[in-house]
Amino acid sequence: MSIEEPRRVEQRMPPGELRPDDRGQDEVREALEEGISLGEARPLTRGEREAAARDQGMPDPVYAPASERIPKPPAPGDEKFVQPKDD
Question: Which tens digits make up the pLDDT trace of 33-56?
């Protein structure tokens, strides 16, 4: 006589939810996924860290004196917003 194993019933879990027997298998990944779900920032990749190190940030604004300012024409397509229609 053989003892039959109970049939495992496939349970559908909500997206992102682990079955109890799958929990604790990959602690680093679980911590990362939990941090994402809590809205925490993810760790930067190597390329992102290098780019952040080279980033000079926003330059200081430079203002020209009123006597040096020159009006420039509107961009193409903006004339209808700048100049009113004559009806």
Answer: 777 777 767 788 999 999 999 999
